Amino acid sequence: MKKYYLIFMIFIVSFVNQAQTVTETEYEFFPNDLIIHPFTANQLEPKLGFVFRMNSNQLWLNIGNSMDLIRIKRDSEIFSIGADLFTWTLLKKEDNFRFPVDAVDYMFGLNFGFKTAVHNYSFGGRIRLSHISAHFVDGHFDKDKQQWKDGMDPRVFSREFVEVLGFYSFNNIRVYLGGTYLYHVEPSGIGKASVQAGLEYFMKDALSYNISPYIAADGTMKTNDKKRNFTLNAGIKFGKIEGRGLRIFYQYYNGYDINGEYFDVKREHSTLGINLDL
User: What's residue 277's pLDDT?
Assistant: First the structure.
């Protein structure tokens, strides 16, 4: 694991040194926004909010953040070096306003972004080097029977990966394409490579100033066994489209469970959510 981060950091340092040779280069440390806003329907994005599964006692609590640590600008080009740190947690509703935690996943890592704007369109890309680990929690344990629920004992789920996504934006539409490679994964039988594509469209200020309906979709496919995940997300954004705000949305998901302890369980469900966008 350490050697991959070392290679990544050497690449970044080389890039910064090269940028310093350009006299018009501007630097900004710890800016208060992101040059690449999270992809709306992508499951692996930093989120702050709740997602309620319809006709079920399940809900997800998402707590996450992504920051640009260094921003380098020259002419119309912007480069960034950032960090990601977030969790997604599966809760189950019980009587007396109790929400025991069934499963939780942790993700952290580094990211490198690029964006350039020309006239009324922009394009760029994001590289992430990240780690994910998954765990069952006490809410998955039946205290009366003194055993793990559903006959599922805790199992090791861990992955380190490189993700590359490129995007193109125009007229409040953003399309993206890329893929992920797992250079270390447990259990070892999981396919290591996948491709991904998605799009999103915001009807900017259609209802009022800074109130924008939107629709977004995302799909991934493993290259070895053709396993697919699909997400459709539609709702209303309060605030700037590529900035902080509040989203209320409906989401349809068909694919393998997003919590790693259930990585081989196929799911299909509809949810309602509320999210504080970064």
Answer: 93
